[in-house]
Amino acid sequence: MSKYNKNKEEFDCRYEIDKRLTEYYEGKPQPMDLKLTVFDLNKFIAVLINRDNVNLVDRDFVETIDRVVKIQSDNKLDNNKNGSIQYLINKKYFIIEVIKFINLSHVGYSYDRETFINRIRERFSGMLKFESILDELDSDEFILTQQDVLETRELLSGALEKYNNQYIYEILYKALEKLKNNEYKSHKEATEEMNYIIQKIADFTTKVVDIKSPNNSDLGILITSDMKEEIVQRAMSKLIDISKPLKTSVKEMNRMIDGFYKRKLYLYAGIPNTGKTTTLAQFAVDCRRYNKAEDVLCNPEKQAIVVYFTMEDSSEDIVNRSIGLSGIEQLRPENSTLEDMTKKFFEAHKNVESDIGLLIKEYGGNTATVADMEAFLSRVEEHYNAEIVAVFVDYIKRVKCKTSRSSEEYAVLCEVSNLLRNMAFKFNCPVISAAQLNREAQKIIEENINRGTADTAKNVGSSNIGSSFDLVANTDALVLINSEYGHKSNRKYMAFKRLKMRYRPKADTTYFVVPMTPMGGFVKDIDIADITDNERDYNYRRQFRSYTSISEAEREYCNAHGIDYDSGAKDSLCGERTASSCNSSLPGNETETRTIQFPINTIR
After folding, report:
1. Residues 66, 27: contact at Cβ < 8 Å?
2. Are residues 477 and 500 in contact, defined by beta-carbon separation less than 8 angstroms?
3. Is the pLDDT of residue 590 over 60?
4. Is the pLDDT of residue 226 over 80?
5. Above 50 in pLDDT, residue 602?
């Protein structure tokens, strides 16, 4: 860090973000222009007076209306040529007063619409500024439907995002400005303050996501001695639905992150050309091959589909690569006939016993926003009568961002990762993507390779993730990946290092390596029967094809081939240092044969 600048005026970012969030949660936010119209205010009133729709409107919903209305500046209300500004201001304060009445009386949540309107009229009769509003309440405009509730949730979510971007995120930009101007005394002070701000923003962002989701639209679970069984079953079914993770073909990966859970954002980070696309494509193929629809679907009447968005390679390239990742030797298109390529494709995908589809969608780099992807997913759900069970985005830096206030990379990555996490909630599925490590990470890895050090990924941490702290804050699970060759065997390995988990996994695995096959994928061990859960048992490692380190893998290779591991000479049998050399002897590379119902689809 450059020399500390003592002359700059102190700006306490922690105090400021706490102050602003407290203002929001206490219902005293700073006024802003949210561009609320008379139609928006009418939607809020409809939600409040239709108390017989209590199953659609919970207390958080009502409290969010209260806060959003209070954020809207009086003089910035958009009248849309529908009455005077004063009329809109009166509507705004009518909403605030009705919510006060609901909270004070504690009865507003149980009345039918007609009775509640009469109570409102009794409460506000004689108040001239509300007289015309009270006269309107019986009109059809204020009858509430389920679609109206969904639209109101979207409206509230959009308003909170504006407040977030214009008022809360401003603190992060000021903190980054302090960092740029050397106003922190040390790296430690800067890191601690950044992490504090990012966590606060992430917590607030989760609130924004929650109000958007109709799955949260109940009054919570009241535990009493006479509670009804269906209430408990409904709660438990939700818990079971989100607790069905998708498995990969690599056992140790399933242990490291417990598989891919619904409503979570997973990120794999690596330097350029280290295998980010290989990792995403491998796990997308695995989600289809090694899972059953009945285990992951919330609605068994739907078709389960995994969607893969490719923004670097063409959809045909990913389809061809998926052949190798399925354990089948792929052909080079320029040297193959259409008949041969088709035969290989069906060998890889048609003979697989799976009822989950894999849909590959191609976008050019930086041409598609998260909103574009969400619109596509909605089309897929409608067209195929489908439930999206996982979304892969290859990769995060290639996603276009229109909503960021800044063109700086850290701001764009922050916004995109936040939107991807929102997408995981919206479609009730895991979103898996990849990010790039920074130049410092690449330098560390190259220096270690030049020194002949194995397991170079162990020397890189979360501070080396791209240029945005928010990538770390917004992800639920962050795993560093790095491909590396063994010094003895010249086999290629992929190393995985767990950097962050928002939830606690069942296993303590934080680092492992898996050999790569001649076809470019990972050696699979999902089909090996479990022998023991005791890690001290002699047979424990025999149920895996992965290793705790490259050193361990190389020692095993040397023992199997009669090579002195401690000698300086490399294995003379290995020849050139290529990804495919010396892999043919690896266990688990045998071709698998199964049956399929749903082939891979591609949509342009």
Report:
1. yes
2. yes
3. no
4. no
5. no
Q: CA-CA distance, 210 to 162, in Å (whole number)?
A: 16
Q: What is the CA angle 403-407-413, rounded to 5?
A: 70
Work out the angle at residue 475's Cα, subtended by the Cα atoms of residues 426 and 246, and round it to the nearest 5 degrees. 65
Query: Please, where are the H alpha helices in 56-181?
Result: 59-71, 85-105, 113-124, 131-136, 146-163, 169-180
pTM: 0.59
Where do the domains of the chain lie, and which CATH numbers do they carry? 7-211 (no CATH), 263-603 (3.40.50.300)
Rounded Cα–Cα distance for residues 320 and 332 (Å): 9
Query: pLDDT-based confidence at 238, cuts 50/70/90?
Result: low
> pLDDT category, 391, cuts 50, 70, 90?
very high
CB 432 within 8 A of CB 260: yes
Residues 494 and 268 sit within 8 Å (Cβ to Cβ) = no
Burial 583-593 (b: 16+ CB within 10 A, else e): beebebbeeee
Closest CA to 243 of 262, 256, 220: 262
Alpha-carbon distance of 307 to 433, in angstroms, equals: 12
State the DSSP H helix or E strand holding residue 341, giving kind and residue range, or none if neither: helix 338-349
Query: CA 366, CA 302: separation in Å to the nearest integer?
Result: 32
542: left (phi over 0), alpha (psi -120 to 50) or beta: alpha
- Decide: 491 and 582 in contact? Cβ < 8 Å: yes
Which of the residue ranges 56-65, 210-219, 308-317 has the most confident prediction, judged by mean pLDDT?
A: 308-317
Give 492's strand partners.
485
Other beta carbons less than 10 A from residue 402's beta carbon:
9
Burial code (b: 16+ CB inside 10 Å, e: under 16) for 178-192 equals: bbeeebbeeeeebee
Q: What is the residue-wise DSSP string for 360-402?
A: EEE--TT--BHHHHHHHHHHHHHHHTEEEEEEEEE-GGGSB-S
Round to whole Å and give the CA distance between 396 and 281: 14
More confident residue, 578 or 248: 248
pLDDT at 86 over 70: yes
Alpha-carbon torsion, ordered 279, 281, 287, 289, to 10 deg = -110
Distance from chain centroid for Cα 413: 13
Q: Are 312 and 395 in contact (CB under 8 A)?
A: yes
- Which tokens belong to 226? 């006479």
